[in-house]
Amino acid sequence: MRGNRPAVGYILGYGAHCRELFGFRSGLVAFLVFSLSLQPGFSAPLSPQNVGMIILLAGMHASILGNEGTMVWGRRRAIAIHVIGSGLLGCVLGFTAGFIFHLVSAPCFLCGMTNLFDSGALTAALVAESPDRHRGLTPAVYSFTGFGMAFLAPLVFGAILDAAGRGVAARGLAFASLGVVCMSGALWLRIFRAR
Q: For the chain, which has fewer Cβ within 10 Å, the N-terminal or C-terminal residue?
């Protein structure tokens, strides 16, 4: 992998992606429950668990659609668009907790889609950038980095909640941390582009 700058960019981008994805997934249902608790007497047609399930199931299709977007915009550009859009949405998501439950569920659904748009595209890009002699090593480092960040995601998310308190602002900061890390994916791709 030495000298393969684009692969390093995709590996670090995947780490940022996994940090956002697993932070979002681990905090989603608790966030929806918290939002619902701010609306006493409101009867939601679906439980927070069901809303979360729908979001996660729909997200599987987003990965495929996101990779298809790379055919239109080009791989690097599409990934950058995906991670910046997803990151910006993540930065505001947590601050919506006090809104009506339907208005909270909608951006959660959108975030569930956008944080998977780049998944398939990153993996396809990495495979395309892997030289034959490193076809095993490059994906191994990619997976190790991604799943390492995925492991850290709920820990950091929870630590931010503990440090920031119990209110809407704490949720906002926790989700914003995911958004900022996600947007760093575009930076990694730019820093490690081919010369």
A: C
